[in-house]
Protein backbone atom coordinates (compact mmCIF):
# COMPACT_ATOMS: atom_id res chain seq x y z
CA UNK A 1 0.00 0.00 0.00
CA UNK A 2 2.90 2.37 0.68
CA UNK A 3 4.10 1.94 -2.90
CA UNK A 4 0.57 2.60 -4.15
CA UNK A 5 0.40 5.71 -1.98
CA UNK A 6 3.72 7.04 -3.29
CA UNK A 7 2.68 6.37 -6.88
CA UNK A 8 -0.63 8.17 -6.41
CA UNK A 9 1.03 11.09 -4.63
CA UNK A 10 3.55 11.44 -7.47
CA UNK A 11 0.86 11.18 -10.16
CA UNK A 12 -1.22 13.81 -8.38
CA UNK A 13 1.79 16.16 -8.13
CA UNK A 14 2.39 15.84 -11.86
CA UNK A 15 -1.29 16.44 -12.69
CA UNK A 16 -1.45 19.49 -10.41
CA UNK A 17 1.73 20.87 -11.97
CA UNK A 18 0.20 20.56 -15.44
CA UNK A 19 -3.08 22.12 -14.31
CA UNK A 20 -1.40 25.06 -12.58
CA UNK A 21 0.87 25.58 -15.59
CA UNK A 22 -2.22 25.79 -17.79
CA UNK A 23 -4.20 28.04 -15.43
CA UNK A 24 -1.21 30.38 -15.08
CA UNK A 25 -0.75 30.84 -18.78
CA UNK A 26 -0.29 34.23 -20.49
CA UNK A 27 -3.67 34.47 -22.22
CA UNK A 28 -6.28 36.54 -20.32
CA UNK A 29 -9.60 34.94 -19.42
CA UNK A 30 -12.93 36.47 -20.36
CA UNK A 31 -13.35 39.53 -18.15
CA UNK A 32 -9.60 39.99 -17.61
CA UNK A 33 -7.90 42.90 -19.36
CA UNK A 34 -4.30 41.67 -19.37
CA UNK A 35 -1.88 39.47 -17.43
CA UNK A 36 1.21 41.53 -16.55
CA UNK A 37 4.34 39.56 -17.32
CA UNK A 38 6.18 40.23 -14.06
CA UNK A 39 3.18 39.37 -11.89
CA UNK A 40 2.60 36.19 -13.86
CA UNK A 41 6.28 35.29 -13.46
CA UNK A 42 5.99 35.77 -9.69
CA UNK A 43 2.81 33.68 -9.48
CA UNK A 44 4.37 30.87 -11.49
CA UNK A 45 7.52 30.92 -9.35
CA UNK A 46 5.39 30.62 -6.21
CA UNK A 47 3.10 27.90 -7.54
CA UNK A 48 5.15 25.73 -9.91
CA UNK A 49 8.12 23.42 -9.60
CA UNK A 50 8.04 22.12 -6.07
CA UNK A 51 6.30 20.66 -3.07
CA UNK A 52 4.67 17.34 -2.29
CA UNK A 53 1.21 18.69 -3.26
CA UNK A 54 -0.25 16.94 -0.21
CA UNK A 55 -3.32 19.18 0.06
CA UNK A 56 -4.49 18.64 -3.53
CA UNK A 57 -3.69 14.94 -3.16
CA UNK A 58 -5.95 14.71 -0.10
CA UNK A 59 -8.74 16.51 -1.93
CA UNK A 60 -8.56 14.26 -4.96
CA UNK A 61 -8.25 11.05 -2.95
CA UNK A 62 -11.13 11.90 -0.62
CA UNK A 63 -13.24 12.80 -3.66
CA UNK A 64 -12.35 9.45 -5.24
CA UNK A 65 -13.30 7.57 -2.06
CA UNK A 66 -16.64 9.40 -2.12
CA UNK A 67 -17.21 8.50 -5.76
CA UNK A 68 -16.04 11.57 -7.67
CA UNK A 69 -13.11 11.78 -10.08
CA UNK A 70 -12.23 13.87 -13.10
CA UNK A 71 -11.27 17.34 -14.27
CA UNK A 72 -13.46 19.11 -11.72
CA UNK A 73 -11.64 17.54 -8.78
CA UNK A 74 -8.30 18.45 -10.37
CA UNK A 75 -9.38 22.09 -10.77
CA UNK A 76 -10.60 22.26 -7.16
CA UNK A 77 -7.32 20.74 -6.00
CA UNK A 78 -5.33 23.28 -8.02
CA UNK A 79 -7.37 26.11 -6.51
CA UNK A 80 -6.59 24.81 -3.03
CA UNK A 81 -2.89 24.59 -3.88
CA UNK A 82 -2.95 28.23 -5.06
CA UNK A 83 -4.11 29.26 -1.59
CA UNK A 84 -1.37 27.20 0.02
CA UNK A 85 1.29 28.68 -2.29
CA UNK A 86 0.06 32.22 -1.64
CA UNK A 87 0.36 31.59 2.10
CA UNK A 88 3.97 30.41 1.72
CA UNK A 89 4.94 33.47 -0.34
CA UNK A 90 3.48 35.76 2.30
CA UNK A 91 4.78 33.78 5.29
CA UNK A 92 8.33 34.04 3.91
CA UNK A 93 8.23 37.85 3.76
CA UNK A 94 10.43 39.92 6.11
CA UNK A 95 7.32 41.16 7.92
CA UNK A 96 6.37 37.56 8.73
CA UNK A 97 8.94 34.74 9.08
CA UNK A 98 11.70 36.46 7.02
CA UNK A 99 12.90 33.31 5.27
CA UNK A 100 15.47 33.10 2.48
CA UNK A 101 14.90 29.49 1.41
CA UNK A 102 11.78 27.58 0.39
CA UNK A 103 11.72 24.13 -1.25
CA UNK A 104 15.48 24.31 -1.67
CA UNK A 105 15.54 27.56 -3.65
CA UNK A 106 15.35 31.30 -2.87
CA UNK A 107 12.02 32.49 -1.53
CA UNK A 108 9.94 34.58 -3.90
CA UNK A 109 10.79 37.95 -2.38
CA UNK A 110 14.50 37.07 -2.62
CA UNK A 111 14.12 35.82 -6.20
CA UNK A 112 12.26 38.96 -7.31
CA UNK A 113 11.26 41.53 -4.69
CA UNK A 114 8.85 42.06 -1.81
CA UNK A 115 6.22 43.89 -3.85
CA UNK A 116 6.10 41.07 -6.40
CA UNK A 117 5.72 38.52 -3.59
CA UNK A 118 2.85 40.45 -2.01
CA UNK A 119 1.02 40.90 -5.30
CA UNK A 120 1.63 37.30 -6.39
CA UNK A 121 0.11 36.09 -3.13
CA UNK A 122 -2.86 38.43 -3.53
CA UNK A 123 -3.42 37.28 -7.10
CA UNK A 124 -3.09 33.55 -6.30
CA UNK A 125 -5.61 33.85 -3.49
CA UNK A 126 -8.09 35.70 -5.67
CA UNK A 127 -7.60 33.38 -8.63
CA UNK A 128 -8.21 30.35 -6.40
CA UNK A 129 -11.78 31.51 -5.76
CA UNK A 130 -12.22 32.23 -9.47
CA UNK A 131 -11.27 28.64 -10.29
CA UNK A 132 -13.33 27.13 -7.47
CA UNK A 133 -16.46 29.11 -8.45
CA UNK A 134 -16.19 28.35 -12.17
CA UNK A 135 -18.77 26.02 -13.69
CA UNK A 136 -15.93 23.94 -15.11
CA UNK A 137 -15.13 22.82 -11.56
CA UNK A 138 -18.64 21.43 -10.94
CA UNK A 139 -21.94 21.91 -12.78
CA UNK A 140 -23.98 22.19 -9.57
CA UNK A 141 -23.89 25.77 -8.21
CA UNK A 142 -24.70 24.51 -4.69
CA UNK A 143 -21.57 22.35 -4.73
CA UNK A 144 -19.46 25.25 -5.97
CA UNK A 145 -20.91 27.53 -3.30
CA UNK A 146 -20.11 25.00 -0.58
CA UNK A 147 -16.53 24.74 -1.86
CA UNK A 148 -16.08 28.52 -1.96
CA UNK A 149 -17.51 29.04 1.53
CA UNK A 150 -15.43 26.19 2.94
CA UNK A 151 -12.22 27.49 1.37
CA UNK A 152 -12.90 31.03 2.60
CA UNK A 153 -13.45 29.91 6.17
CA UNK A 154 -10.45 27.58 6.19
CA UNK A 155 -8.07 30.21 4.80
CA UNK A 156 -9.35 33.43 6.36
CA UNK A 157 -10.09 35.12 9.68
CA UNK A 158 -11.14 32.00 11.57
CA UNK A 159 -8.65 29.71 9.85
CA UNK A 160 -5.18 30.07 8.33
CA UNK A 161 -4.84 33.88 8.43
CA UNK A 162 -6.19 34.03 11.96
CA UNK A 163 -3.78 31.32 13.01
CA UNK A 164 -0.88 33.26 11.55
CA UNK A 165 -1.85 36.27 13.65
CA UNK A 166 -2.01 34.12 16.79
CA UNK A 167 1.46 32.84 15.89
CA UNK A 168 2.85 36.36 15.58
CA UNK A 169 1.28 37.35 18.89
CA UNK A 170 2.81 34.31 20.57
CA UNK A 171 6.23 35.41 19.31
CA UNK A 172 5.79 38.70 21.19
CA UNK A 173 5.47 40.86 18.07
CA UNK A 174 2.88 43.05 19.80
CA UNK A 175 4.37 43.25 23.26
CA UNK A 176 5.21 40.71 25.94
CA UNK A 177 3.30 37.47 25.65
CA UNK A 178 2.79 34.71 28.18
CA UNK A 179 3.88 31.26 26.97
CA UNK A 180 0.94 29.46 25.45
CA UNK A 181 -0.46 26.37 27.11
CA UNK A 182 -1.24 23.16 25.25
CA UNK A 183 -4.83 24.12 24.47
CA UNK A 184 -3.79 27.46 23.00
CA UNK A 185 -1.02 25.89 20.91
CA UNK A 186 -3.45 23.29 19.57
CA UNK A 187 -5.96 25.99 18.61
CA UNK A 188 -3.27 28.06 16.89
CA UNK A 189 -2.04 25.07 14.91
CA UNK A 190 -5.56 23.90 14.05
CA UNK A 191 -6.12 27.30 12.45
CA UNK A 192 -2.75 28.07 10.86
CA UNK A 193 -2.00 24.64 9.36
CA UNK A 194 -4.81 22.25 10.17
CA UNK A 195 -7.72 24.20 8.72
CA UNK A 196 -6.55 24.03 5.10
CA UNK A 197 -5.55 20.37 5.37
CA UNK A 198 -8.92 19.51 6.93
CA UNK A 199 -10.73 21.45 4.21
CA UNK A 200 -8.88 19.48 1.54
CA UNK A 201 -10.55 16.30 2.78
CA UNK A 202 -13.92 17.97 3.36
CA UNK A 203 -13.83 19.42 -0.17
CA UNK A 204 -13.40 15.94 -1.59
CA UNK A 205 -16.45 14.80 0.37
CA UNK A 206 -18.42 17.80 -0.91
CA UNK A 207 -17.49 17.03 -4.52
CA UNK A 208 -18.45 13.40 -4.01
CA UNK A 209 -21.84 14.26 -2.54
CA UNK A 210 -21.03 12.32 0.66
CA UNK A 211 -23.86 11.84 3.16
CA UNK A 212 -23.77 13.37 6.64
CA UNK A 213 -22.00 10.44 8.34
CA UNK A 214 -19.35 9.96 5.65
CA UNK A 215 -18.67 13.68 5.53
CA UNK A 216 -18.31 13.77 9.33
CA UNK A 217 -15.85 10.86 9.18
CA UNK A 218 -13.83 12.57 6.47
CA UNK A 219 -13.78 15.81 8.46
CA UNK A 220 -12.58 13.98 11.59
CA UNK A 221 -9.85 12.34 9.52
CA UNK A 222 -8.79 15.69 8.05
CA UNK A 223 -8.62 17.43 11.43
CA UNK A 224 -6.55 14.67 13.02
CA UNK A 225 -4.28 14.52 9.98
CA UNK A 226 -3.79 18.29 9.99
CA UNK A 227 -2.86 18.27 13.67
CA UNK A 228 -0.44 15.37 13.14
CA UNK A 229 1.14 17.18 10.20
CA UNK A 230 1.89 20.28 12.27
CA UNK A 231 3.39 18.34 15.17
CA UNK A 232 5.52 16.44 12.65
CA UNK A 233 6.64 19.81 11.26
CA UNK A 234 7.59 20.96 14.77
CA UNK A 235 9.64 17.79 15.26
CA UNK A 236 11.37 18.18 11.90
CA UNK A 237 12.34 21.75 12.77
CA UNK A 238 14.28 20.29 15.70
CA UNK A 239 15.67 17.11 14.18
CA UNK A 240 16.08 17.72 10.44
CA UNK A 241 18.67 19.68 8.44
CA UNK A 242 18.16 22.57 6.00
CA UNK A 243 19.40 20.32 3.20
CA UNK A 244 16.82 17.62 3.93
CA UNK A 245 13.98 20.01 4.68
CA UNK A 246 14.62 22.51 1.87
CA UNK A 247 14.32 25.44 4.28
CA UNK A 248 15.96 26.74 7.43
CA UNK A 249 15.61 24.65 10.60
CA UNK A 250 15.81 25.51 14.30
CA UNK A 251 13.68 28.60 13.73
CA UNK A 252 10.88 27.75 16.13
CA UNK A 253 12.95 27.80 19.32
CA UNK A 254 15.01 30.78 18.13
CA UNK A 255 11.89 32.87 17.56
CA UNK A 256 10.04 31.61 20.60
CA UNK A 257 7.31 30.08 18.48
CA UNK A 258 4.47 28.23 20.16
CA UNK A 259 4.83 24.52 19.34
CA UNK A 260 3.85 21.26 20.97
CA UNK A 261 7.56 20.36 21.10
CA UNK A 262 7.98 23.41 23.33
CA UNK A 263 4.88 22.65 25.37
CA UNK A 264 5.37 18.88 25.75
CA UNK A 265 9.01 18.16 25.06
CA UNK A 266 10.33 16.27 22.04
CA UNK A 267 9.52 12.71 23.17
CA UNK A 268 5.94 13.51 24.17
CA UNK A 269 5.42 15.56 21.00
CA UNK A 270 6.44 12.53 18.91
CA UNK A 271 4.01 10.36 20.86
CA UNK A 272 1.24 12.90 20.26
CA UNK A 273 2.08 13.01 16.54
CA UNK A 274 1.75 9.24 16.36
CA UNK A 275 -1.50 9.27 18.35
CA UNK A 276 -3.04 11.83 16.02
CA UNK A 277 -2.02 9.87 12.94
CA UNK A 278 -3.64 6.76 14.39
CA UNK A 279 -6.79 8.77 15.17
CA UNK A 280 -6.86 9.86 11.53
CA UNK A 281 -6.70 6.25 10.37
CA UNK A 282 -9.42 5.18 12.81
CA UNK A 283 -11.72 7.94 11.58
CA UNK A 284 -11.89 6.05 8.28
CA UNK A 285 -13.08 2.81 9.88
CA UNK A 286 -16.45 3.15 8.16
CA UNK A 287 -14.81 3.01 4.74
CA UNK A 288 -13.44 -0.11 3.11
CA UNK A 289 -10.21 -0.75 1.26
CA UNK A 290 -10.92 2.18 -1.09
CA UNK A 291 -9.68 4.44 1.73
CA UNK A 292 -6.37 2.59 2.21
CA UNK A 293 -4.44 5.27 0.36
CA UNK A 294 -5.79 7.90 2.75
CA UNK A 295 -4.75 5.69 5.66
CA UNK A 296 -1.28 5.48 4.13
CA UNK A 297 -1.25 9.29 3.95
CA UNK A 298 -1.62 9.43 7.74
CA UNK A 299 1.42 7.18 8.12
CA UNK A 300 3.32 9.29 5.59
CA UNK A 301 2.74 12.41 7.69
CA UNK A 302 4.45 10.70 10.63
CA UNK A 303 7.32 9.18 8.65
CA UNK A 304 8.19 12.04 6.28
CA UNK A 305 11.63 13.63 6.46
CA UNK A 306 10.86 16.87 4.61
From TrEMBL:
Origin: domain of life: Bacteria
InterPro entries in alphabetical order: Isoprenoid_synthase_dom_sf (IPR008949), Polyprenyl_synt (IPR000092), Polyprenyl_synt_CS (IPR033749), Prenyl_diphosphate_synthase (IPR053378)
CDD domains reported for this sequence: Trans_IPPS_HT (cd00685)
Any Pfam family the entry gives: polyprenyl_synt
Cross-referenced SUPFAM superfamilies: Terpenoid synthases
An MF annotation (GO) of this entry: prenyltransferase activity
A cellular component annotation (GO) from this entry: cytoplasm
Keywords: Isoprene biosynthesis, Magnesium, Metal-binding, Transferase
GO terms, biological process: terpenoid biosynthetic process
Needed cofactors: Mg(2+)
Coiled coil: none
PANTHER family in the cross-refs: FARNESYL DIPHOSPHATE SYNTHASE
NCBIfam families: FPPsyn
Protein family membership: Belongs to the FPP/GGPP synthase family.
Protein name according to UniProt: Probable farnesyl diphosphate synthase
Organism of derivation: Alsobacter soli
Amino acid sequence: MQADFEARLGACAEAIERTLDSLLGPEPLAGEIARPERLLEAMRYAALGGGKRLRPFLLMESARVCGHEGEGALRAAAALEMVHCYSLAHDDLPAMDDDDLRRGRPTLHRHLDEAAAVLAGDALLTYAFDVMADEATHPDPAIRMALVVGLARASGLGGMAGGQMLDLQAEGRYGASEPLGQADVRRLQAMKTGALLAFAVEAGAILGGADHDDRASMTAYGRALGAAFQVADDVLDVESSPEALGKATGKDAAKGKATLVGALGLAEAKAERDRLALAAELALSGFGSEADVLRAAARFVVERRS
